[in-house]
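Table 4 source record.
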Amino acid sequence: MTVEIEAARAEHGSPDPRGWAPDHRRRLLLPLLMVGGWLLATAWRIWLARHAGMPFAHTDEDSYLNTARALAGGPGGFSSENETLRRIGYPLLIAPAFLLGREFSDTYLLVRVINAALNATVLPLAYLLGRRLLALRPVPAFVAALAAATLPAVVFHTTVAMTDAVLGPLLLAWLLAVHRLVDRPGLATATMCGAFAGACHLMHSRGVVIVAGYALLALVLFVRRRLGPAALLAAVIAVLAAVLTNEVGIRLLGESVQLLGKPADGNAARALTSVRGLSQVLASVGTQLWYLTVVTFGLAGLAGAEAVIRVFRRGGAATRWTFGVALLVTVGVAFGAELVLAGVPDRVPDAIYARYVQMFASFWLLVGVGLLFGTAYRPLLRRAGVAVLLLAVGGALIRLRLDRAEARGVPLRWGGFSAPDLVALTDGWQQMRPLVGSAIGIAGCLLVVLVLAVRRRNTRTVLLAVMLTALVVVNVATTQVLMQRLVRPLAVEGTPVPGVTELGIRSPERVAASTGVPYQLRFNLSHQVTWTEVPWFGDRPPVDADVVFARWAPGEPGDWDGTRFGFVRLGGDPQRKWAGWRRG
């Protein structure tokens, strides 16, 4: 009788009285794991930013924060953007933090909480991409997503009020929508894909490349009659809505936010029309792609080689087109970023400026990890060979470029914000070390080859699990090094002590700041004045200013004596060259 009952339950799907069936438990476990992982990832990101109570990535943070405050109805300020590159998507996103009317330190914390919550969505988005794009099983997909979500290139910018904190997950969401659109083209999928592309445009000028890539995809699908006129129109409308939102927001801001960014000069055009200029652009683009391969320990190189092969292979249209679009926009953003930077007047050329391509790091790492679970050994060996060759040649060429620039007496600029994770991985705090970076990427490729060469399936699975666990640990450790050696010192250096409140400065006093105050402190003192805009002055303060911040450097040139203008010093820090003064 018992056997018959069990057989009937198995046939008709009746519930097991002793508990849920295993498949039911697995279905519940996955969403719990995703939610729990997202919460932990959010908490980790908030914890990482604990040392930075004030902005330290000047002047980008100041631009976004001033614009967000103006959008929330507060006083304006300045922005380092220019008319062409101006975007209000990220300021709109963080503007609610300014509605509470709290002190700036509380507002800044809330901004980074928003950053952390949105950036942590890399975990579920990467998991979905692993399942749908790479056809991974649940456990490998989760491991790959975990590696992508802990990557320093993704995590680092959650500690600052910059649009990069949200562009990484936004890109993953868009590529997921691209895969869905090619797989099941229709009105809803076209609208969703267009909305994500438009959101990228609303966030940053890099979104122009995303929109261009999406426009090309939609046009091809339309020509092939896989996308109807209504769906194509919906896609266009979704993008136009984002463009119009940006324009309307700019018009509403009016003159409340002053643009300090200079329009691009003719350097961008000359970079394309001269042999030397074009060679520099191509070298910079190659350096950015080399960077992606190094900071993913060679996995992005494996992924890139696989993507090129998939594009020219028949079958699997959704996967093939998604890889093709990803390749197109990755190279497009690297190329476009270099053109934009080349057009900035009087800009010192960079050895590398990887910020614009960091948004792609999680995707290519994810694809690289996915290959480890589903690619035969011999094909993977060939892809690893391509990655090793590119790393070796790339490192040598970058070293040669650095040496030639040094020999000409015009060394290329290199700093922590150019590629912070590369700095930490190569111990390149003083100078760029491309050969060390190449060695790290090559070692990662060789380790993958050695692990997958193991013939016993169980042993290979264990070694692969150990290797990916080590990857997550290295990601977390690298991020911690960045927090301690880069973020914390900059945060301490840029935090004025005493603060505005300790000096007794209160609303509705009108405040101005002298350009003689070191710029980090001048910006952060101004942020603490939440009730009015803080204009700058040289030597003579504005006639309507009640309080001013000025240079305090006893016995040094530029020391500001406020008594000449009827001011009384409130306090400050002569070691860090600033003081607050109130009109007597």
